[in-house]
């Protein structure tokens, strides 16, 4: 078992039992981190959320009714987190809705996260399936160490209709930002903006019940098969845009661009010329819409204002493709999957366009012509290996951080799969 906190890694929070029991354990183990996150989002001068009265109204009238209807288990887990951390349930819902609430405020569109999927098929079976991302977010989450690796066990699950284990990278108090489950499903996500997104210019009375985006990500991870997971992410009620890259160890990955009214999909379509008979495809995404179906819609507009998103996705694609397509054998012989993971790690550490590069750094220096200087950075880099059920995570900037690996043990312990470091 890994230590709870290390200099190189985020706190590893392990929970088990019913949704409420798992939430209570989460709340107790991460109590100070949860309270810090609540304080920063509700009361900090740098908070990107609307004022407390507006947040409370949306939580009560917009988010809670949808959660009660569509995600009862999630609501019970959030009740447990609130009780374990000795805070109000509304504060835990606020943490899980912070992405959505920030959009109401009109947060600057600086760009958050670069995601990818990589598939390699050697003919007889799908040998490698990865979803991965650099998570770019407010630097205080890293500085104050309020991110956790949440390992959740459900003893009642059968690992067919539902997973017995979920591991997620998330802010303390949230149910998931990205993650992987024991059924071989994985998800990463990044921000999008469209003219359909809700804003404070619209009367609150006109707002319909919707689910926070974070809860939809967890709903995907609660599914036992890819079709059910796709149904969850495509159909959940929402009032802001966003993007998810989802995959399954069975060799399928899809990017889903979401607006409040629609979804648009992309599949890995860039073949790599690898040595031998293997074939590989890769898909990357940043913070602007790229699907032809969305771009052909005159009624839905991408409202991203320009910046690093316009090159980060293509840069990531080019780096990984070039690195893995080299015909010359590596200097040090290693398994193909280790080479792939190393290539992804190197790509995520790239500094083209510094400081708003793939590996984003907090110190932005002097910025000209309206460029935003917000204190954002790559707070974590993560790679989910859906075949081996391994999570590789780097705390902070991948150019200088230490990578840690978590594995889902393939040895059953009753109905629970244990993680090993």
From TrEMBL:
NCBIfam families in UniProt: C45_proenzyme
Q: Where is the Peptidase C45 hydrolase domain?
A: 127-397
The UniProt entry, under Gene3D superfamilies, shows: 1.10.10.2120, Penicillin V Acylase, Chain A
Query: What's the domain of life for this entry?
Result: Eukaryota
Protein name per the record: Peptidase C45 hydrolase domain-containing protein
The record's listing under PANTHER family reads: BETA-ALANYL-DOPAMINE_CARCININE HYDROLASE (PTHR34180:SF1), PEPTIDASE C45 (PTHR34180)
Q: Which InterPro entries match?
A: C45_proenzyme-like, Peptidase_C45, Peptidase_C45_hydrolase
Species, as recorded: Phialocephala subalpina
């Amino acid at each position: 078992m890994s230590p709870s906190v290390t200099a190189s890694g985020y706190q590893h929070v392990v929970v088990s039992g019913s949704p409420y029991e798992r939430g209570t354990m989460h709340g107790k183990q991460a109590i100070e981190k949860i309270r810090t996150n609540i304080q920063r989002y509700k009361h900090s001068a740098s908070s990107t959320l609307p004022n407390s009265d507006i947040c409370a109204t949306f939580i009560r009238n917009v988010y809670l009714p949808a959660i009660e209807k569509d995600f009862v288990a999630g609501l019970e887990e959030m009740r447990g987190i609130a009780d374990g951390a000795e805070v109000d349930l509304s504060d835990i819902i606020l943490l899980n809705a912070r992405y959505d609430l920030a959009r109401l405020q009109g947060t600057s569109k600086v760009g958050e996260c670069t995601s990818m999927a990589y598939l390699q098929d050697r003919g007889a079976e799908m040998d490698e399936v990865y979803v991965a991302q650099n998570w770019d977010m407010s630097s205080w989450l890293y500085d104050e160490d309020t991110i956790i690796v949440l390992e959740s066990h459900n003893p009642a699950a059968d690992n067919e209709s539902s997973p017995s284990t979920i591991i997620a990278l998330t802010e303390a108090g949230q149910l998931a930002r990205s993650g992987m489950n024991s059924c071989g499903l994985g998800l990463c996500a990044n921000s999008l903006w469209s003219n359909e997104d809700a804003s404070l210019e619209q009367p609150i009375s006109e707002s319909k019940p919707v689910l926070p985006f974070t809860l939809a990500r967890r709903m995907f991870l609660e599914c036992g098969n890819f079709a059910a997971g796709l149904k969850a992410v495509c159909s959940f009620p929402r009032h802001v845009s966003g993007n998810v890259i989802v995959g399954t160890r069975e060799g399928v990955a899809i990017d889903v661009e979401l607006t409040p009214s629609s979804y648009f999909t992309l599949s890995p379509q860039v073949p790599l010329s690898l040595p031998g008979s293997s074939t590989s495809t890769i898909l990357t995404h940043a913070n602007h819409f790229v699907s032809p179906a969305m771009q052909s819609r005159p009624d839905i507009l991408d409202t991203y204002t320009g910046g690093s998103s316009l090159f980060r996705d293509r840069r990531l694609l080019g780096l990984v493709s070039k690195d893995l397509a080299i015909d010359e054998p590596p200097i040090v012989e290693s398994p193909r999957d280790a080479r792939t993971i190393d290539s992804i790690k190197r790509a995520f550490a790239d500094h083209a366009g510094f400081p708003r590069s793939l590996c984003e750094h907090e110190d932005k220096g002097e910025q000209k012509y309206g460029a935003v200087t917000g204190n954002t950075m790559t707070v974590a880099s993560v790679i989910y290996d859906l075949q081996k059920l391994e999570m590789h995570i780097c705390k902070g900037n991948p150019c200088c951080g230490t990578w840690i690996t978590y594995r889902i043990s393939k040895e059953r312990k009753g109905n629970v799969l244990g993680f090993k470091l």
